[in-house]
Specification:
The protein contains no helices and 15 strands. The protein is mostly beta strands. The strands form 3 sheets. The protein has a 5-stranded parallel beta sheet with strand order 1-4-7-10-13, with no helix packed on it. The termini are far apart.
Length: 85
């Protein structure tokens, strides 16, 4: 499992299982087969691809766009909307 910490000021693509402890300012795209455990913050949109997974333990200051993935758990705050496409 990959670990991301610190502040990232750009869009990122999650290609494998990842735990985010820091903060991302930008769009996060979770590719098919990958899982993102959000224990930090995202100031932007999270896009969940088909067959990907998402766990939210902290805060998303934007929308979650679900394009066929699975939101396994939300224990944090979503300041935007959950949009199913």
């Amino acid at each position: 499992m990959k670990l991301l910490s610190g502040t990232i000021n750009q869009d990122i693509i999650i290609e494998r299982d990842t735990v985010l402890l820091g903060k991302i300012k930008g769009t996060v795209t979770v590719l098919s087969g990958a899982k993102l455990e959000l224990r930090g913050e995202v100031d932007g949109t999270i896009i969940i691809s088909p067959f990907s997974r998402l766990v939210v333990e902290h805060t998303v200051f934007g929308d979650i766009v679900n394009r066929g993935g699975q939101i396994e758990k939300i224990n944090g705050d979503i300041k935007g909307q959950i949009i199913n496409e």
